[in-house]
């Protein structure tokens, strides 16, 4: 639920940029609206220059000697800067590290369940820290933990790359894996299809239909024709004789 402004006690974002009369120096190096160098002017002359063009005088390099100011539309400038910051944050990826813990001796059902969790985290583009926890006499057999980690890495080799090989850390042995390039490409394609619809799906190649070659026809030599093979022409039946008029 949004908090009404008059009850919202949070401090508003401060804008420390000095503009116009807030610039308290005797002279500035002035840059014009199109980026051209105007030169070093008294602050009063620089303000007049900006006001004549219905623009603002904005201090862009306060630590320079003399400070650098630019003539521009400050409202438009703030909006453009906010859009750039928003775009930059959009392209930033937050790296999340998940952790899944195994025991050296683990039942197959529990192993499959935990590997399923690892797979799900990888498909969420998260890194996964896999920890083997040793207890008591298990500390005497670190090779079992290493073998288990290698088994997991081999099973997930199509989805993950090993960023940190098995490392003994006290009673634990850890390995870090991250989504592979192949998985990231697959997920990017799935996101593109979900965004653009089925039309964005890759088009499968359709194999051309096989066309049967025409059978070769061998013409028979008339001289080799067997008369017995030629069907006899059927004779027309004789017409009945007309009755005698006598």
Describe the structure.
Among the domains are: 20-73, Ubiquitin-like (UB roll) (Roll), CATH 3.10.20.80; 97-182, Translation Initiation Factor IF3 (2-Layer Sandwich). The chain has 5 helices and 8 strands, in the order ββαββαβαβαββα. It has helices spanning 43-52, 74-91, 108-123, 142-155, 181-196; strands at 27-31, 37-42, 56-61, 68-72, 97-102, 127-133, 160-169, 172-179. The protein has a 4-stranded mixed β-sheet. A hairpin with a 6-residue loop joins strand 3 and strand 4 (68-72). The N and C termini lie far apart (128 Å).
Draw up the topology in text:
Blueprint: E1 27-31, E2 37-42, H1 43-52, E3 56-61, E4 68-72, H2 74-91, E5 97-102, H3 108-123, E6 127-133, H4 142-155, E7 160-169, E8 172-179, H5 181-196
Keywords: Initiation factor, Protein biosynthesis
Domain Translation initiation factor 3 C-terminal: 95-179
Pfam family, one: IF3_C
What distinguishing features does this structure have?
Translation_initiation_fac_3_C, elongated, 4-stranded mixed β-sheet, initiation factor, 246 residues, alpha/beta, Translation_initiation_fac_3_N, Translation_initiation_fac3_CS, Ubiquitin-like (UB roll), Translation Initiation Factor IF3, translation initiation factor activity
Q: What does the main sheet amount to?
A: 4 strands, mixed
- CATH 2nd-level architecture of the domain at 97-182: 2-Layer Sandwich
| Radius of gyration (Å) | 43 Å
Q: What fold name goes in the CATH topology slot of the domain at 97-182?
A: Translation Initiation Factor IF3
Number of strands: 8
Q: Order of SSEs, N→C? A: EEHEEHEHEHEEH
Structural class by helix and strand composition: alpha/beta
CATH C-level category of the domain at 97-182? Alpha Beta
Widest sheet: strand ordering: 2-1-4-3
Helical amount: 25-40%
Distance between the termini: 128 Å
Beta-strand portion reads 15-25%
Q: Output the number of helix runs.
A: 5
Domain Translation initiation factor 3 C-terminal: 95-179
GO molecular function: ribosome binding; translation initiation factor activity
Region (Disordered): 195-246
InterPro entries: T_IF-3_C_sf, T_IF-3_N_sf, Translation_initiation_fac3_CS, Translation_initiation_fac_3, Translation_initiation_fac_3_C, Translation_initiation_fac_3_N
